[in-house]
């Protein structure tokens, strides 16, 4: 998913006219297959009938253009000023990209917006409700005031599958209470190279740990299909199918990206073991409702390297493997304008992806063009109606299972729970359990409340930095972006004598212990790729702060607040204690809980920590494996 880019409404209006013209030339028999209205007695409106029967009945009443509308997803930025476009296009779905929010970015503001769009959808002939999708990747992260959890690699460090389930149950509750019924989460990718800008979205480099954390799917969707209709659950999306964390550095052709959206060069056996395995579990154990194919490509070594196929065009993996062999019966949603990366003109891109098995298309600002193009491809016989019917049946199945035909508007029962103390307590627990203690010479940690503590580093007191990307906006941002507690505030809650100096310029005399909080500033996706303006190395400012504080104060603790391990090989001897704090989210007090011993350090590395940037990629199981800290490493303390 990407940040929405606004386009003019002129193109949309022109395309609407074009669709009307195209629909007018449909064969009369095609139009006659559906009648003018949906009687109250129509089987698809009867909640007591099996979902399969309701799907079949509704599908039989739909015209080709109505079916294609269900396969189309537009960005809210394209339709917000005129929601009647939802009705005219018969849209099946609307999404909010990162940072695409209502003017009133509050729980009720969200619910009002989604309901306004839903009213437009229910104004269509067959009154098929809208499915609203949003990236809730570490909480309902577009909503200011929502509970923001640590990112996925931090959750991998907890090794606590039940905690992950509880986290996503809360995320589902907060998301659905504010309107959206569908989340583009979780990422079940296996991150094999720390230079990837999405590293923090992966639970681990080890597919076994990723699979352990797929309890996230149960948290989102519930244990049974009927749970989907409950206001505490949402439709989940396993992403990005498959191999997006295993692409070769330097293989990306997307702008200035270096690894994101690149090529996974592998053989089928290795691909199955590393990249595909989490999806088998997602489908067969958790019944995930939707899957998002990756921007990336796969290049099989068996037939010679040099002929990669974009996942959005990969019939072998989308249909033959995922749908037929693994048994996936949900629907596939393309990533943001992903089909535009398929070779050929737009008609070729649409035709190729539909025939490969894609079911719904995230065409944020080109939905009218998509519908017009696909309709023409169907009329020309280049896309069989059977493929359209299969796609629409899968989409309608999810809408029936979510109970949207019975309750299309937002159930606001839990709206007051958004950002509640009970929910934030779970996020605080997650932040504390995710902390990984990597060095603790002389048992410097835990700290004592009576100590005079000198805190340095911008990341000690920057809410935006500790939340990371995908927080309010796509890339996230530094500063006071969301409510919560910073790490500094957590320290101040535990000790009376605290001196803070962001740049370590304040005098250190008289301090018993120094705490230097280093790390990264927010980024998301390929924008954060190493080589695209980023590096795994610590900044000069962070190195200077470590040098000053650790040389001036007898006891020195360093916390790394970052989306991935950073290179600390030369700095490590200067520290008495070193903690990987990841991106802990809105509850920085959870970091201080472990610092002061209220919670023991129990976290373990979900990824391998390299000695240098040039050592990447390095993963557990490699033949030449000599990291700074191995996968699974983590010291423990007692409460």
From TrEMBL:
This is beta-glucosidase. Residues 436-635 form the Glycoside hydrolase family 3 C-terminal domain. Residues 65-397 form the Glycoside hydrolase family 3 N-terminal domain. Keywords: Glycosidase, Hydrolase, Signal. Its EC number is 3.2.1.21. SUPFAM superfamilies: (Trans)glycosidases (SSF51445), Beta-D-glucan exohydrolase, C-terminal domain (SSF52279). Residues 1-30 form the signal peptide. It catalyses: Hydrolysis of terminal, non-reducing beta-D-glucosyl residues with release of beta-D-glucose. One of its GO terms (molecular function) is hydrolase activity. It is an enzyme of class 3 (hydrolase). InterPro entries: Cellulose_Degrad_GH3, GH, Glyco_hydro_3_AS, Glyco_hydro_3_C, Glyco_hydro_3_C_sf, Glyco_hydro_3_N, Glyco_hydro_3_N_sf. Belongs to the glycosyl hydrolase 3 family. It comes from the Bacteria.
């Amino acid at each position: 998913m990407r940040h929405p880019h606004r386009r003019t409404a002129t193109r949309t209006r022109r395309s609407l006219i074009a669709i009307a013209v195209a629909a007018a030339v449909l064969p009369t028999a095609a139009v006659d297959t559906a009648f003018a209205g949906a009687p109250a007695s129509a089987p698809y409106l009867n909640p007591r009938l099996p979902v399969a029967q309701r799907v079949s009945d509704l599908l039989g009443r739909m015209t080709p253009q109505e079916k294609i509308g269900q396969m189309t997803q537009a960005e809210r930025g394209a339709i917000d000023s005129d929601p009647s476009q939802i009705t005219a296009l018969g849209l099946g779905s609307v999404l909010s990209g990162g940072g695409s929010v209502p003017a009133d970015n509050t729980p009720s503001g969200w619910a009002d917006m989604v309901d306004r769009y839903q009213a437009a959808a229910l104004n269509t002939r067959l009154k098929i409700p809208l499915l609203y999708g949003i990236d809730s990747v570490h909480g309902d992260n577009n909503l200011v005031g929502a509970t923001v959890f640590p990112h996925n690699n931090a959750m991998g460090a907890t090794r606590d599958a039940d905690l992950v389930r509880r986290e996503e149950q809360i995320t589902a509750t907060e998301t659905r209470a504010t309107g959206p019924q569908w989340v583009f989460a979780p990422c079940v990718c296996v991150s094999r190279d720390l230079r990837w800008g999405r590293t923090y979205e992966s639970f681990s480099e080890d597919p076994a740990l990723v699979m352990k954390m797929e309890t996230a799917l149960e948290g989102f969707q519930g244990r049974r299909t009927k749970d989907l209709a409950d206001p505490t659950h949402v439709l989940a999306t396993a992403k990005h199918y498959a191999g997006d964390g295993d692409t070769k550095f330097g293989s990306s052709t997307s702008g200035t990206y270096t690894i994101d959206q690149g090529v996974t060069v592998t053989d089928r056996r290795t691909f199955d073991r590393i990249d595909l395995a989490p999806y088998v579990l997602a489908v067969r154990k958790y019944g995930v409702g939707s899957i998002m194919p990756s921007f990336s490509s796969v290049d099989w070594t068996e037939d010679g390297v040099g002929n990669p196929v974009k996942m959005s065009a990969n019939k072998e993996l989308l249909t033959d493997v995922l749908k037929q062999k693994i048994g996936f019966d949900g629907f596939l949603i393309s990533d943001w304008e992903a089909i535009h990366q398929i070779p050929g003109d737009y008609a070729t891109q649409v035709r190729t992806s539909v025939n490969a098995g894609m079911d719904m298309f995230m065409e944020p600002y080109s939905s009218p063009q998509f519908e017009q193009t696909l309709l023409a491809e169907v009329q020309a016989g280049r896309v069989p109606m059977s493929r359209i019917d299969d796609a629409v049946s899968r989409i309608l199945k999810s809408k029936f299972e979510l109970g949207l035909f019975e309750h299309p508007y937002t159930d606001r029962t839990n709206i007051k729970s958004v950002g509640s103390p009970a929910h934030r307590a779970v996020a605080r627990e997650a932040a504390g359990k995710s902390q990984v203690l990597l060095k603790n010479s002389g048992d410097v940690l835990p700290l004592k409340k009576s100590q005079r503590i000198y805190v340095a580093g911008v990341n000690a007191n920057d809410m935006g930095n500790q939340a990371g990307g995908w927080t309010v906006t796509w890339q996230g941002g530094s500063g006071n972006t969301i409510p919560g507690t910073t790490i500094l505030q957590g320290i101040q809650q535990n000790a009376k004598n605290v001196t803070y100096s962001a740049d370590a310029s304040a005098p250190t005399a008289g301090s018993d212990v120094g705490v230097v909080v280093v790390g990264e500033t927010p980024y998301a996706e390929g924008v954060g790729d190493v080589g695209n303006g980023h590096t795994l190395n610590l900044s000069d400012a962070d190195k200077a702060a470590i040098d000053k504080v650790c040389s001036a104060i007898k006891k020195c603790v360093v916390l790394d607040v970052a989306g991935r391990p950073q290179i600390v090989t030369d700095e490590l001897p200067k520290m008495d204690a070193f903690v990987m704090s990841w991106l802990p989210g809105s509850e920085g007090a959870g970091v201080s809980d472990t610092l002061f011993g209220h919670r023991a350090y129990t976290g373990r590395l979900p990824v391998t920590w390299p000695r240098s940037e040039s050592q990447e990629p390095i993963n557990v199981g490699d033949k030449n494996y000599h990291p700074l800290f191995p996968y699974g490493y983590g010291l423990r303390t007692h409460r």
